[in-house]
């Protein structure tokens, strides 16, 4: 019988994020792991004790000394391997993770000057008061401190490549067919602009929190200490944590803000997916050459000549997984039956997986882009083989002359369609056609001087709009806060 991998110690990872790709997503562990969740809970619980005493919310209790504040704040700061194991031991007894956090804190207050005040820990709180604030802190850290800087970095890489290739002419393809030429840099700049809009949206999302009791009514607070303005205590505490106060909730904070952020991250990922598929196509057309050292040691197990675009394919797959998970999070988290159900608990434990696949995709995109060399000769050859794309230029000039009153400019579209549709036209053939149109000299000479490589309009100039973006280049720093 085959050996069971489930019995091996240390445990073998079930998912590739904690196995094969661990090093590339490891920064998220500090924010979205189970241990990070418990550390965030410790922050919320200890800060709540400090806040209640500092605000004198409960009459008759003394204020804290600076040493006592430091003691409370040291509890989450010192939460490491031993603390994780101890919390797990307590949870096996309580069969409740938040209650285990409460007991963990009380153990650390035992024998100190704070022991008489230990019952303030978790007072007036439901588990969701602690959890919603903990997830808010975790998601803010993961998105702003880990995901967004990586996302902005790939935008910066792409922006530089766009600027470097702003004047490199390239044949466009609409519907997969040869179309009006552009420049490589302009096409990459389109992606930079799209991605940059999302980079500005994501940190602008509000991150909400609440601390208002079992059904959002402050019932336990008001019956225990009726003289305290508990709404103000709640608001000031949530804002102390750097979050936006939600004044109206059921037992849970409604999670709408999470859905908004995940939708934005998913949309950013879909734009990155579009970038990956386009770059993959440019590689297949020979517009980009891949340096083997940047892509990996082996291109194909049987075909040694190949350098496969694996970085872009890996990014595609991970963005698809990430997008599906983020969509599921967005859809599930906005619904809670009546005043509370527990679907959000399991759902939120997959936030790290969703962002992890996105972060992994970004890492692969950056490696892939770093390993590309532009091949202007391949693009030039493609342009030279498609003179028929100048049909648009010729018929546009003829139309303009026709509406200005020049005779002989009738049916320009139809005449060009007859010449070009479904046919490959050579440079010589296009020039002969232009010569026979009876154009005024200035327009004739302008068209005769044109080639597919020079028919790019303002493409190179348009790349300059990137300098107006606060994201994607040397004109601005990170939007994360």
UniProtKB/TrEMBL annotation:
The keyword Lyase applies. InterPro entries: Fumarase/histidase_N, Fumarate_lyase_CS, Fumarate_lyase_fam, Fumarate_lyase_N, L-Aspartase-like, PurB_bact, PurB_C. Keywords: Lyase, Purine biosynthesis. Gene3D superfamilies: Fumarase/aspartase (C-terminal domain), Fumarase/aspartase (Central domain), Fumarase/aspartase (N-terminal domain). Residues 19-315 form the Fumarate lyase N-terminal domain. Pathway: Purine metabolism; AMP biosynthesis via de novo pathway; AMP from IMP: step 2/2; Purine metabolism; IMP biosynthesis via de novo pathway; 5-amino-1-(5-phospho-D-ribosyl)imidazole-4-carboxamide from 5-amino-1-(5-phospho-D-ribosyl)imidazole-4-carboxylate: step 2/2. This is Adenylosuccinate lyase. The gene is purB.
């Amino acid at each position: 019988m085959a050996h069971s991998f489930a019995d091996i110690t240390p445990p073998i990872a079930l998912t590739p994020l904690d196995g094969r790709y661990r090093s590339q997503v490891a920064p998220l562990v500090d924010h979205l792991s189970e241990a990070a969740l418990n550390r965030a809970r410790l922050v919320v619980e200890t800060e709540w004790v400090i806040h209640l005493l500092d605000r004198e919310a409960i009459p008759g209790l003394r204020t804290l000394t600076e040493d006592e504040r430091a003691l409370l704040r040291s509890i989450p700061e010192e939460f490491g391997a031993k603390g994780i194991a101890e919390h797990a031991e307590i949870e096996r007894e309580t069969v409740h993770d938040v209650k285990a956090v409460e007991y963990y804190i009380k153990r650390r207050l035992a024998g100190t000057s704070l022991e008489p005040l230990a019952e303030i820990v978790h007072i007036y709180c439901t588990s969701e008061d602690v959890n919603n604030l903990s997830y808010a802190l975790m998601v803010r850290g993961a998105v702003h401190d880990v995901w967004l800087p990586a996302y902005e970095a790939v935008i910066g890489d792409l922006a530089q490549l766009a600027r470097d290739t702003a004047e490199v002419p390239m044949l466009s393809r609409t519907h997969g067919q040869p179309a009006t030429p552009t420049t490589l840099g302009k096409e990459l700049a389109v992606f930079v602009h799209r991605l940059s809009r999302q980079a500005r949206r994501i940190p602008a999302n509000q991150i909400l929190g609440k601390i208002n009791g079992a059904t959002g009514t402050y019932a336990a607070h008001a019956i225990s200490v009726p003289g305290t303005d508990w709404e103000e205590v709640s608001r000031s505490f949530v804002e102390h944590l750097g979050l936006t106060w939600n004044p109206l909730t059921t037992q849970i904070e409604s999670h709408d803000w999470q859905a908004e952020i995940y939708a934005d991250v998913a949309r950013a990922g879909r734009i990155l997916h579009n970038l990956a598929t386009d770059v993959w196509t440019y590689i297949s057309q020979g517009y980009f050459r891949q340096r083997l050292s940047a892509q990996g040691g082996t291109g194909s197990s049987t075909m040694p000549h190949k350098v496969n675009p694996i970085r872009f394919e890996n990014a595609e797959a991970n963005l698809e997984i990430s997008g599906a998970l983020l969509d599921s999070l967005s859809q599930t988290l906005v619904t809670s039956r009546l005043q509370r159900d527990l679907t959000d608990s399991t759902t939120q434990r997959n936030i790290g997986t969703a962002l992890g696949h996105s972060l992994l995709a970004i890492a692969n995109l950056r490696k892939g882009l770093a390993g590309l060399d532009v091949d202007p000769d391949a693009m030039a050859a493609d342009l030279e083989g498609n003179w028929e794309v100048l049909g648009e230029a010729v018929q546009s000039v003829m139309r303009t002359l026709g509406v200005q009153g020049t005779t002989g400019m009738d049916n320009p579209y139809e005449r060009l369609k007859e010449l070009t549709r479904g046919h490959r036209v050579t440079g010589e053939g296009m020039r002969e056609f232009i010569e026979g149109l009876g154009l005024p000299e200035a327009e004739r000479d302008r068209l005769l001087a044109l080639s597919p490589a020079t028919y790019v309009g303002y493409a190179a100039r348009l790349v300059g709009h990137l300098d107006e973006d606060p994201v994607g280049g040397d004109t601005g720093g990170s939007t994360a806060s």
